[in-house]
Amino acid sequence: xxxxxAGPVPYVYVCTRMRVRKSKLIPREDYLRLLNMSIPEITxxxxxxxYKKEIDELASSFHGIDLLxxxxxxxxxxxxxxxxxxxxxxxxxxxxxxxxxxxxxxxxTIFRGKAQGMxxxxxxxxxxxxxxxxxxxxxxxxxxxxxxxxxxxxxGQSIYPVIAAGITTAIEEESFAxxxxxxxxxxxxxxxxxxxxxxxxxRQFLEYILLDIDMINIRNMFRLRADKLPEDASxxxxxxxxxxxxxxxxxxxxxxxxxFIDALKSKVTLKPLLVLLDAMxxxxxxxxxxxxxxxxxxxxxxxxxxxxxxxxxxxxxYLEKKKYEIFNLRAIARGKEVNLPTDRIRGYLVM
Length: 351
Known about the structure:
Layout: H1 8-23, H2 28-34, H3 39-47, H4 52-58, H5 64-86, H6 89-99, H7 101-115, H8 120-125, H9 135-143, H10 147-153, H11 160-173, H12 177-195, H13 202-227, H14 233-236, H15 245-252, H16 257-265, H17 271-279, H18 286-307, H19 312-337, H20 342-346
């Protein structure tokens, strides 16, 4: 394991490594090629990239979509752990705090998989142990035979109080949405506290957190409007960004689409977002809007990285782009598995 102390030289080193890794991500033209391949062809293609080790290790035990799913999860988790190993000083602290988002996702995946009667192996394939809860711990949770026992096994973890307080209602309502909302609110509250606690580089970390909160809240506005559930708006907002709970509720409650877009534009200042909102029409699907909002966020993160090349920004930018590479490859493979039309699969990709 390579270790560095904090300071200018290791910061330059790790941020340069992130730019090198980012340059090796799959480009748009290769995604377009993958859309015209079968699952065996996709597997052979990615075996020639940075996923070769995982494909080779798993090929004797898994095949088809199962091989792809598990190889992608393993690769992403290993990449996240590797980056934590080489990241120095306070950048490591911020990176680890950011990656705890995966603890939430993994626990919710286990809850939902168990509740739906999924086989343990299928749940394991899509877990990404890149946060504080490692593969060994997650495997322990998967072996439990009830949701209540899983919750008890989480005792002592930072997420335990929120989950313990909401699990009874979740089981009764057969929905983990309330627990999910509460966990992400806690997560972002902790990130904001971390970024404003006086550590060097906290201001740059805060820039990312505020961007992330705002973009999540905007995506949730569009989702709530599409589902026509404005009464739930106050429970969906992540506090700390530019939208207060009242702002969020007021915006979601606007019935006319154009009036909603105009009101939203009056609340934001990010130029690429304003350009996107200007171009929106009522003909766009929710999925198309969400993909475009993700692209705006990634572009802004890239801009942060260029303005502050030796900060937390290049690390977070790479982590997010790597996440969406896995997302894209999974979307293509799953789409092929159920014979979705190529154009429909393409609509799910972040390119």
